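Need tokens for this chain, all 410 residues.
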Amino acid sequence: MSDLTKGLDRALSGIPNSKLGVAVSGGGDSVALLLMLAARGDGLRAVTVDHGLRRESAEEAAHVATLCQRLGIPHHVLTWQNWDKSGNLQDAARQARLRLIGAWAVKESITHIALGHTLDDQAETVLLRLARGSGVDGLSGMAAQRIDGPLTWARPLLHARRAELRTYLVENGVEWIEDPSNDDPKYDRVKARQALVILSDLGITADGLIATADRMQDARIALEAATLDLANTCLEITDAGEVRLDMAIFNAAPDELRFRLLSATLQWFSGAPYRPRFDSLRGVLNRIDTENGQTLHGCIIRSHSGNIIVRREVERVTHACHIDAIWDHRWVVTEHGRDPAKTIAALGEEGLRECTNWRDTGHAREVLLASPAMWADGLLVAAPMAGMANGWAIGLKYGKKGLHESLMTR
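Here are the structure tokens for all 410 residues:
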């Protein structure tokens, strides 16, 4: 079992338990992760999301709570309640889980969340993505760490097999819960698990798929570095937060780099966890010289004066938020004026009409409509980008290099 714990310690090197949270469903993988992390020392906190999709889910959360109490680890149960029953259930549950845990982590001043994905999960992921025709990024599998703003999602058990973890639990006398959906063939992941048994006769094994993922990760890192070089030569972010790409330099780059850079730009604007569909992205680039004002991923893409201009689509900005929160994934107040404001929201048509000198700013009307403004009970207090600062200032949360940094998955 030393190989298991050594691999986990390497994956979490430099991350103390005091900054670490662990997501525990009650299944064998996450329970084994909880046990190994508890052995590292004090400070660990655990969280379980009760999706409420099965009658047993509350009992499973209670089982985890009992185990955590025995280990002396603070445990929180978060409940998902607002599924509208549309779309893909598994994806909706996953997004809700990440959102709930992320908010909990920020509240608890946790910087890293450990997830119990294993080597077997990685192999199944690669096989599923191969079936979907994924490229280099998809076939590189799940990242050992994924940075999401102030939070890092860590997978310290990607070196471990499921069977090893269950042996570890048995040897330590710890019980776990088997989710019946893990054997339900209606789910693609279960089909992939079953397919690997059959494909082993052809030499397609979990270890072979992991080796492919490792090589794809090396290729992905090289492509990310090349995309960053392209961004450094052709991309500019204005004070109003719009992106300008020098069209001549951008169009001279290989297609793969162009797709990556535009995709990352759209994600940076929208805060979306996923890239736009490849065909949609390619269609925008194919039409950029002939069709102006295209929309994709909550953004407007235009060509103007030798540049590709990307701006936030005003209809897709997030709702109003507290004056000291991050608005629309990017903006934070950096200086408060004398007149109090309660919320940040888009300036919009109504607000722009109050900014009589907005043309003097040099910013396009389209940009200013989607720009952040400060409001109090429906009254405009300040619109710094539209020439109505009133002592207020606002800026990009991660600066103008935030987009550049997002190009590297680390």
